[in-house]
Amino acid sequence: MTVAFFLRHACLAAAFPLGSALAQAARSEPSEPKEPAPTQLQRVEVQAAQRSDNDLRRQSTAAKIVFSREELTRYGDTNMSDVLKRLPGVNMQGGAPRMRGLGAGFTLILINGEPAPPGFSLDNLSPSQIERIEVSRGPTAENSAQAVAGTINIILKEAPKNRQREWRGGFNTAQGRVTPWINFTYGDKSGDLSYSLPVSAYQSRSLNETSVQTQSLDAQGGRLVQAARYTDDGEGRGFNASPRLAWRLGDNHNLSWQTFVNRHDWTSVGSNVVEVQQGQGPVSRDERYRSWGRWQMLRSNLHWTRNLADSQSLELRLGGQGWSRDAGSQLQGRGAGGQPVLDQHNRSYSEEQGLTASAKYKRPLWEAHALAIGAEVEYRQRNDSRSQLDNGVEQLPGFEAPFKSNISRLAAYVQDEWDINAQWSGYAGLRAETISTASKEPGGEQRNRSQVVTPLLHLAYKPGKGRDVLRASLTRSYRAPNLNQLLGRPSVNSNLYPTSGSNIESSPDRTGNPNLRPELALGLDLAFEKYLQAGGLLSISAFHRRIDGLIRSATTLETVSWAAVPRWVARPTNLTGASTSGVEMEAKGRAGELFPSAFEAGLPLDLRASLSFYRSQVAGIPGPDNRLESQQPYAVNLGFDYRATALPISFGGSMAYTPAYAVQQSIEQRNTQGLSRKFDAYAQWRFSPTMSLRLSARDLLPLEDSSSSSYLDANGNEQGSQTERRLVRSVGLQLEIKL
């Protein structure tokens, strides 16, 4: 079954409930008068006041931070990456969010409580389709325990309780390139049915300039220095839609349906000028390339709930998803004299379909306990194919055939939430999860199976009148190896080192390891949160993680099937272990409440700040920089928002800063990352309660994004590369209308 087939039939299935919603809305219109019916009692719905983000945070036993739509849309962002980089305790690197300073794979990304599919980019998700974001610092039994650093749960827009018509449109500009975007949300309620249809469409354009200098050894053992200048001119376009229906089937019976559709197309053209500055190496050349691709995804879920007698409840979920990625590129290189030296063609295609099902039963237990028991099952089927031709010669003969993989996941859990008294609350959970993968490769069938049992404990204490909270958590979490880390398909840098010869340690081939084990982490978290009278918050938290079986890449010289000579190959492997600790501080609130001696109490100025310190050590690797990969020593986030009283104007700014740092990746390899400094600002003019205009600016203090990697071989010779990428400012204008 192809993704196109899945998308077509899922969209047809989506049309039926949407058509039913519109038909029911039409039937609710007044018709010709009839005889008066006997008087009947009308149902009256009482809606409780919506709880604030701080209320939701304070009432949760497990540490959780909630960010509402107001917080997410303040800067007029058009993608989720820009939103997440401003959240306390969250950093962005390489387009992926990270918590606790750990690599992206340690942070679990959920969409409506389900893991985001592989290859999904948050840059393609519009904040206008988000209801809220929940950031959890520790795992719970009802969600996957693959959250060593924490969990970011992105909740899509829910069906409204009242009529909703909202339109947002605007454009962004950077380097003289204008890109438009538009969002529209339609929602209403008719009797026991409520529905919403958020739709977004966007265009993106970028011009990236990167310079790379590499140092290695030439064939004679002398020093070889090469400099490359990359220029990439890219354009993308896409759309998102997340229709949702919610039926009230009875006083204790509800059914909801939500679908998320995402498609993104991109093209780019660019150049790569390579110059040999020292040594006897490949000839200097001038390369021109173009690339293209398409990503598309559809996910659809049904959620059925039934409230039973004695405060019991039953939930059932059924979902399906499919995604595909089709990409290709063509590169032509010419030598210093203009003669052709390289004609390269790449093509790759991946697709995946999957089904999920879950059940959850809740009931009170004794006087102050809430027991929940649940089970989950998931099955995914994936196909991958890839081809790389250099001057008409396949670089990986035998590996261009499709790889077929099956992934299955089974999980069961039990949890108990205990309101001990007015001040104490506790949570205890136990989750067992099994992940099995099977792949058919040219070398035969590869299988991997991991089973992890994770006990979880959370405790919250509210001293005094219960406004402040002390928290403690003891958890076990893990990170399972992803499919790419398990597959044995190699990836080679044939531009510099084709498979007809050998390569060097600093530019190895890469492949997977089917014998990888999950990384297991034992975690301790402590936190204190002080909630101020006017809505402000002060918090400090500390954490420690002990990780066993840490996965790191190891480079060795091997005899391989894709080359006639031995080549250096990097493959992931389990190390002994590692440990990491940190302290995170956060403050937010009105300026007059946080600094009463410096600001008036009624000043409409909101301040927020977060400061985090991290430290880690990897066993078996010499210090002092034997930290976990991509973990910065500290991070700072600052921001303010001001709402004028004489004019309908509000404005604000936000800054995120991380210092430069080095990571001793292995005994031989060392990586560095330059400092990052990002400053964004916005100004909003409200013409009326239903119309506003917002001006936003991003990366007002751009820096060169720099990184380097060095490798020391057995003879003491240093090889490596240094990369610098220029960042640019961007400005956006947004008009919002609520109809």
From TrEMBL:
PROSITE patterns: TONB_DEPENDENT_REC_3. GO terms for cellular component: cell outer membrane. It is a multi-pass membrane protein. Residues 58-151 form the TonB-dependent receptor plug domain. It is found in: Cell outer membrane. It comes from Roseateles toxinivorans. This is Iron complex outermembrane receptor protein. Its main location: membrane.
